[in-house]
Amino acid sequence: MMKFYKRKIAVVGVIAALTLSLAACSSEDGGNGGGGDAANGKVAFLMPNLASTRFEQQDSPLFKAKIKELCEGCEVIYQNADGDAAKQQQQADAAITQGAKVLVLNAVDTTAAASIVDSAQSQGVAVITYDRPIPKVEADLYISFDNEEIGRSIAQSLVDHLPPATGEQGILIVNGSPADNAAGLIRDGIHKSVDASDYTVLAEYDTPDWDPKKAQDWVSGQITQFGDKIIGVVAANDGTGGGSIAAFKAAGWATVPPVTGNDAEIAAIQRIVSGSQYNTISKPIKIVAEAAAEASMAFLKGEKPTGDADVFGTSARIFIPTVVTSENVKEVIFDGKIYTAAEVCTADYKAACDALGIK
Fold first, then answer.
1. How far is residue 148 CA from its own chain's centroid?
2. For 90, phi and psi rounded to 5 degrees?
3. In a designed cystine with 137, which of 114, 244, 263, 304 is the match (CB 3.0 to 4.6 A)?
C-alpha cells in the first residue's frame, strides 16, 4: 500500500500543535497571503456540503469566533458549496475578488479543487486545505485529524466488539465519497483493521457525496442479499452510519447490528446513547477550526506557518482522534464539554442518558 503521508515527529501534542507563532506583524520574504493590513484582513472559509451537519453547526461558528478573538476587524467570508464542485470554484473566485487573502478550503472534489489552489496561489492568496487533502498540488498548509487513523480505529473498535463470525457471516463497509481523498485515507485505515481480522467483507461501497440516503439505499440492497449474515457495518462517518441504521430499521430488524461512525454529530451521540449506533469518532472540531484560524492570521501577517507532518507534499498539522462508544461517551463528550446534556438528551433520549449517568 502506498504511504500517503509521513510524520516528522513521533507524537503530535494537541496543545503544542495549536500554537502557531503570531508574534510578527509582517514578513519581508513575501509569499502567499499577507504583507498587507492584517488588522482588516479577509479570510474565506469554504466548506463542501450540507450532508455533514458539522460544517454548519461546528466548523463555521468556531472558526469565525476564533478569528474574531484574534482580529476584531477581520472578516470571514463563509460559503458552503452543498456538494457542487463547480459552485465551490465560483465561491473561491468570488472570495478572492472580494479581497480574501487566505482560503481555508474543504474541497468538494479533492481532484478538481487543485485548480482552486493553483488559481489562488497565482494571485498571492494562501490556501489552507482543511479536513480533506488535495494530492495533486502543494497547498500552503493542511490541517486535519489523522484520517487513516480514524478508519483504522473505528474498524478495530468494531471487530474487537463483534462475536466470532460463524458460517458465512461477515461485515459491510460503507466508505465515503470517491471524490474525497480523506475518504480514501479513512478507507485505507478501515482495511488495515478489517483485513487483519477474521471477518469476511460481504460487500463494500463508496458513497457518492457522502450522501446518507445513498448509503441507506445501498445497505438496503445488501440486507436483501445477505440478510442475517450481516453482523456489523463499518461506516466511514455518522451520515453514512445513520443511513445504514435507517436501512436496517426500515427492513424491520428489531436489533440493528453494530454500526460505526465518525464526526460525533449530535444525532450520532443520541444513537450511541440509545444503543442503535456502536461508535463514532470524537475529533473536537474546536481543535482544527481554531488551528485553521490561527494559521489564517499568521498568513495574513505575512508569516509562513508550518506543520509537523507531510501529507501529499503539503506541510500538515495532524491531530489524533478518540473513539467514542457508550462506555466513554459521558467522559469524552459531556465531561469534555463537546456537547451538553440539554443538547443531546431530549425527551426521546432522556431515559437512555439517565441510564448512562448523563445529566
1. 11
2. -65, -40
3. 114
First to last CA, the chain: 46
State residue 229 phi and psi, 5-degree precision.
Answer: -70, -20
33 Cβ contact list (under 8 Å, min separation 6): 101, 102, 124, 125, 126, 140, 299, 300, 302
CA 112 distance to own-chain centroid:
19
What pLDDT band is residue 12 in, cutting at 50, 70 and 90? very low
Q: From start to end of 42-164, where are the E strands? A: 42-47, 75-80, 102-105, 126-130, 141-145
Place 31 in a pLDDT band, splitting at 50, 70 and 90.
Answer: low
Q: Of 127, 108, 107, 104, whose CA–CA distance to 117 is shortest?
A: 127
Reported as a single tens digit per residue, the pLDDT across 240-264 is 999 999 999 999 999 999 999 999 9
Beta carbons within 8 Å of 287's beta carbon, 6+ residues apart: 14, 18, 319
Instruction: State the cell numbers at 206.
Output: 463508496
Question: What's 291's DSSP letter?
Answer: H
Per-residue burial over 96-120, b = 16 or more CB atoms within 10 Å of its CB, e = otherwise: beeebbbbbbbbbbbebbbebbebb
Separation CA 171–CA 84 (nearest Å): 32
Residue 257 · residue 233 · CB < 8 Å = yes
| Strands laid side by side in the 230-235 sheet | 200-206, 170-175, 230-235
Residue 5's pLDDT band (cuts 50, 70, 90): very low
- β-bridge mates for residue 235, sequence order: 174
In 10 A of CB 26, how many CB atoms?
13
Q: Write out 312-358 in H/E/C secondary structure.
A: CCEEEEEECCEEECCCCHHHHHHHCCCCCHHHHCCHHHHHHHHHCCC
Distance CA 296, CA 127 (A): 9
Give just the sign of the alpha carbon dihedral 3, 198, 169, 242.
negative
Q: Report the C-alpha gap between 207 and 190 in whole angstroms.
A: 15
Question: Which residue do the cell numbers 436496517 mark?
Answer: 248
